[in-house]
Specification:
Layout lengths: L2 H17 L20 H8 L3 H8 L8 H10 L4 H10 L15 H9 L5 E4 L5 E4 L1 H7 L7 H4 L1 H7 L7 E2 L2 H21 L4 H13 L1 H8 L8 E8 L3 E11 L6 E7 L5 H9 L7 E2 L6
Antiparallel strand pairs: 1-2, 1-6, 2-7, 3-4, 4-5, 5-6
Length: about 290
C-alpha cells in the first residue's frame, strides 16, 4: 500500500466508525457519549480484531490488512457494496478473476436476514466461514470465538476430525463429506489460480494430512450441494437437519441453509433455540492483528 492509500484507508475507517449507530449493530448504549458512532474497542469487538490493530489502522501505521480483516470490518461497519469495494481496493484486494472474493454483498446479507427461521452460514470458496445469522450461532456455537483454523471447514475436517464440533456423522457420512469438499476445493484452484491463501491451504493440508493428500491425488472435481446433519446441541438435544449448499454467481460464496428433516422434531427444537438468545448476523472475526 502506498502512503496515500494508507492515509485514505485510515480516514475512511474513522469516518465509517463515527457514523455507525451503536444500537444498530447490537451494542448497548447505557449513557450519553462524548462522540457519535462506535468506540474503537466496540469496533474491535464486532470485527474480532485487537483494539491496538484498530488504532494502527486508523493512524495509517500498519501493514496491509488481510481480506478476512477487510470483510470483518465491512460487516461490522455495515458498509454498502460500493464502500466494501473501496475498502478492498485500498487494502490491495481489488477484484481479480484469479483471487477469491471474501466480500459479503448487501443482497446476500438480505437473504440471510430473511431466512431467520433457518440456520444459515456463508462461506467463501475455500470453505471458510465468513458470515452467519443468529440461529446458526445458536445451533453451532458462537463462531466469533473461533480462530482461523476453527472457521475453516477443511482444516477442521482434516486436522481435527470433524467439519463442525456439534455435528455427528457416521463414518460413511464423514468420508463422503471429506471426498465432496476436496473435490469442490480442486475446482476452486482452477477458478482462482493466483489466490495465495487457497494455495497455502492446499499445500498445508497436503503436507499434514495423509487423507487429504490421497483425496487430492485422486484428481476428482465436483461441487458440494446437499448433506444430512445431526447436530448434538448441549441444551435442546439432537436436531436432525438437511443442509443445502447454494452458490452465488458473482462472488462464488456458499450459503449453507439448514432445514428440518421431514418427520423429525427439528422445527420445534430450532424454535426453542431461537428464544435462547443469540447474536446478530456477523462476519467472522479475523486473525488477531
Amino acid at each position: 500500500m502506498s502512503t496515500g492509500e494508507l492515509a485514505e484507508l485510515a480516514r475512511s475507517l474513522r469516518t465509517w466508525r463515527d457514523r455507525t449507530d451503536p444500537a444498530e449493530v447490537g451494542m448497548a448504549v447505557n449513557a450519553p457519549r462524548r462522540a457519535p458512532g462506535l468506540r474503537r474497542e466496540e469496533l474491535a469487538l464486532l470485527a474480532g480484531i485487537s483494539i491496538d490493530y484498530v488504532v494502527r489502522l486508523e493512524q495509517g501505521r500498519t501493514r496491509t490488512p488481510s481480506a478476512q480483516v477487510c470483510a470483518s470490518l465491512a460487516r461490522a461497519l455495515r458498509l454498502s457494496d460500493a464502500e466494501q469495494a473501496h475498502l478492498f481496493r485500498l487494502a490491495g484486494h481489488a477484484p481479480d478473476r484469479g483471487r477469491i472474493s471474501r466480500r459479503v454483498p448487501a443482497g446476500v446479507r438480505r437473504i440471510v436476514d430473511a431466512l431467520h427461521d433457518s440456520p444459515v452460514g456463508v462461506l467463501d470458496a475455500t470453505w471458510t466461514l465468513i458470515a452467519w445469522n443468529p440461529l446458526y450461532a445458536a445451533l453451532m456455537g458462537d463462531p466469533s470465538a473461533l480462530d482461523l483454523g476453527g472457521r475453516s471447514t477443511l482444516r477442521r475436517m482434516f486436522t481435527r476430525g470433524e467439519a463442525m464440533d456439534r455435528v455427528r456423522h457416521t463414518p460413511e457420512e464423514r468420508d463422503a463429506l471429506a471426498r465432496s469438499l476436496v473435490a469442490d476445493l480442486r475446482g476452486s484452484t482452477s477458478r482462482y489460480p493466483h489466490d495465495p491463501e487457497l494455495s497455502a491451504l492446499v499445500a498445508d493440508l497436503y503436507a499434514t494430512s495423509a487423507e487429504f493428500a490421497e483425496l487430492w491425488d485422486s484428481g476428482v472435481v465436483a461441487g458440494h450441494h446437499q448433506s444430512h446433519k445431526v447436530v448434538e446441541h448441549p441444551e435442546v438435544g439432537e436436531v436432525e437437519l438437511e443442509c443445502d449448499t447454494l452458490t452465488t454467481a458473482e462472488d462464488d460464496l456458499r450459503l449453507l441453509v439448514f432445514t428440518p428433516t421431514p418427520g423429525s422434531d427439528a422445527r420445534g427444537r430450532l424454535d426453542l433455540l431461537a428464544t435462547l438468545g443469540t447474536q446478530s448476523m456477523h462476519v467472522s472475526p479475523s486473525p488477531r492483528g
